[in-house]
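Morning, I've got a small favour to ask if you have a moment. I've dropped the whole record in just underneath, so have a look.
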Amino acid sequence: MATIATPVFEKSSDSLSSVDQRIGIHSDSRLRQPLSTNPFNVNIENVVASANLHQNIDLESVAKTFPAARYKPDQFPGLIHHLRKPDVSVLVFRTGKLVIAGAKSEAKARRAVLRLVEELKASGLVILGKPDMTITNIVASADLRHPVDLEDIARNLQGTIYEPDQFPGLIYRSKDLKEVILIFASGKLVCTGATSEDNVPRAIKRLHEELVDRHLIITDPRDQL
């Protein structure tokens, strides 16, 4: 799966508002746009990212500094640290590698890395370089706003897997897109595998066009984009 490397800002002297502007935290607002500009009600549910501090981290020291962090090396090699602002969980490994989960946008995932670096510095750890970050997976929900016949879609649309005895949704994998979309009979969707927020509505729109072209969804002309 392709990944997109994105820089993470590190200056701890910046206020959160200035950091928000620099890393695009305002992008969350587009997820709350009216139906006319977000016709499929796309919402980012989880952004997973990896990052690298490019140095070894003494996890024992970090665990002592952050009592709420979970570190049981006999069970798992990483330290689990939960941030409140943003509300994100970070796995910290001795190699300096990080895994960020639970962010509601790419910007908040970057901000989580920044926040972690600030907290590590405040605890007395020296962070030598600038961390980088790569978005590895974005999970989003969406809605076609029309019920669909999953058996009909499975028969007429390539790249589908539908086994209702095992899972109530249909799995759609387009050969032209890296995203995977779960389709439910209600018209609700779950899109996973994206590495950019912009790719999510694009994948949903592509699916919608495929369904309409094959007469697998009946739409009101007023709903057309």
Notes: Residues 1-35 have pLDDT under 50 and may be disordered. The two ends are 30 Å apart (CA to CA).
